[in-house]
Recover the amino acids of this structure.
């Protein structure tokens, strides 16, 4: 869903709320849910689908 | 050029890189390593016509295996699997620095709780216990007493993964409330910043305050040598100042020198981009463009030989 040229609209997978995302969001990008603060991963853009992001794992980092 | 990006999570760093690459008209192939399979002579990932692949995997294990497979297929990849292998393991990292005569904190590795306790006692208190694999300051312990040492070692033994039984013990460097992160491409600094905190861990990921830093000649030399020691590439070189009174702070008199505590191979640079005047993603892409040509030339020479 597109609300205007600057934002996209998607459903928060945890709460079901509609949330706005920047229009330049990428597949694989992590955003913080404005509703719960939970990290969400962008799974697809057409349509915009979000999933709860994977938990931090021990070997993540630089 | 056609650039592959190995990833499993697009952070701000990857976003900056993707944006710069696309702005310059490069074709970008995003490769989510979670979705691909890597066979002995081919992969499901679309890598055949890529000029260069940049490893931006957040997971060290995925980074090491994915780059090793791509390298095996002859796909040009940065950083190289050899560099990743050294940087991903703190023990190998310390050894590489020491072998190259780059000053680095005194370190011992032990494989049992008793031997680790002996190492800790020989360093004296405080000293530092680190996991050999890990980042962002996770599971780092500054040990202030024998009682604490015994407790931490016992806890580490129960953590499960065999790597927690590789005890990496290091002298505590009484740095002046900050350390220095340098982003470098094949030893040439792109930008540098200090990371300051009242906590002994000053990592930006731990909330350390960042500020642009001008490298002196000694630091420039050490960054180049540290980069060479691990095989070069796009690296984050971490230094601590030595010979500075930790109480009077870094502004008093300057450092006598530096010690390089580690080199990171999938370096994050968003904090550097924000803290300095350098356009970090642009400089990184400049380097990638040069690197792609260099690797292609090397391959052509090899084919001719």
């Amino acid at each position: 869903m597109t609300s205007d040229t600057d934002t996209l609209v998607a459903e928060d997978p945890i709460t079901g709320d509609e949330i706005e995302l920047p229009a330049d969001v990428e597949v694989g990008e992590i955003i913080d849910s404005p509703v719960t603060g939970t990290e969400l991963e962008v799974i697809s853009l057409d349509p915009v689908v979000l999933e709860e992001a994977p938990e931090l794992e021990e070997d993540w980092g630089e | 050029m056609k650039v592959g990006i190995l990833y499993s999570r697009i952070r701000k760093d990857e976003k900056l890189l993707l944006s710069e690459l696309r702005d310059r008209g490069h074709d970008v192939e995003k490769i989510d390593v979670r979705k691909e399979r890597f066979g002995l002579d081919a992969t499901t990932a679309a890598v055949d016509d890529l000029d260069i692949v940049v490893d931006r995997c957040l997971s060290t294990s995925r980074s090491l295996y994915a780059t090793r497979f791509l390298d095996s297929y002859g796909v040009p990849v940065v950083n190289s699997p050899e560099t990743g292998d050294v940087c991903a393991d703190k023990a190998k990292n310390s050894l590489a620095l020491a072998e190259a005569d780059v000053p680095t904190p005194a370190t011992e590795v032990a494989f049992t709780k008793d031997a680790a306790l002996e190492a800790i006692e020989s360093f004296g208190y405080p000293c530092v216990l680190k996991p050999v694999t890990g980042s962002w300051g996770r599971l780092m312990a500054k040990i202030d007493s024998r009682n604490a040492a015994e407790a931490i070692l016992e806890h580490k033994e129960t953590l499960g993964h065999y790597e927690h039984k590789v005890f990496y013990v290091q002298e505590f460097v009484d740095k002046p409330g900050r350390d220095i992160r340098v982003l470098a491409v094949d030893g040439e600094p792109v930008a540098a910043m200090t990371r300051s905190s009242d906590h002994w861990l000053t990592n930006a990921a731990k909330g350390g305050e960042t500020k642009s830093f001008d490298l002196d000649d000694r630091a420039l030399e050490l960054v180049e040598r540290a980069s060479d020691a691990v095989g070069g590439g796009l690296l984050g070189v971490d230094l601590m100042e030595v010979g500075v009174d930790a109480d009077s702070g870094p502004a008093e008199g300057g450092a006598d020198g530096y010690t390089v505590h580690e080199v990171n191979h999938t370096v994050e640079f968003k904090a550097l981009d924000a803290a300095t005047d350098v356009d970090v993603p642009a400089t990184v892409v400049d380097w990638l463009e040069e690197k792609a040509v260099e690797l292609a030339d090397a391959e052509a020479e090899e084919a001719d030989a």
Q: What stands out?
A: Residues 106-171 of chain B form a domain with the Dna Ligase; domain 1 fold (CATH 3.30.1490.20). Chain B has a mean pLDDT of 94. The longest strand of chain B covers residues 188-196.
